[in-house]
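User: Predict the structure for this protein chain, please.
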Amino acid sequence: MARFSEKKISVPHGKIKMRVCNTHLFRPRRAICGAFYLHDILGSMQKTVEIDGVDVPYTIRSNSKSKKISIRVQEGGQISITKPTRVSVRYIENLVETKKIWITEQIKTLKNRPKKLLSHYSAKDFDKYKDEAYNLVDARISHFNKFYKYDIERVTIRNQSTRWGSCSRRKNLNFNYKIVLLPSELQDYIIVHELCHLAQMNHGKKFWDLVSLQIPDYKDRVLELKKY
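Assistant: Here is the predicted structure, written as structure tokens:
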């Protein structure tokens, strides 16, 4: 017979006693403390919905600051739902049932969408292009810095999947090796963008004014870069 013990969890309106067996926490589905459901206190929870005979998992998260329900289908088919704290899990379950066709369409769309260059991650490609990327970046930094005249501590080429470049407060500039695979006008925009962060570590008006001194059509290039 399993051995049980009691565990108390502090919450905004007191404590909840919960039974624990073999270190696994048994969560009453709608145990209430004050105005809070237990799963809202403990964090997210996993559920499944049957779509075309397959159990598809999704995650429900409660957020006291949320004013509406948000359903996200991400690349890879992960489904996450954020709800206001006051909305019950049963309501979300019923909502998901009515959204099964929409969820299926979103998953298919994401599967058929070509991968963006930025999200492509390959150690083999990194080894192939990193030296070429460094030479390109070094040459273009030298070109643009004749105008800006900023001090630079170090330039590094990285293999990243979420950003084209970055600048640290220590005046280190980092660039994604995939910059060599972009059109030249976008290469220049990324390099000038990071150079200008040496003077303005933000995206305020002064920063964009600096960028525009060498890339006056930067807004068009920002939009174009999003395609990659």
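The two ends are 58 Å apart (CA to CA).
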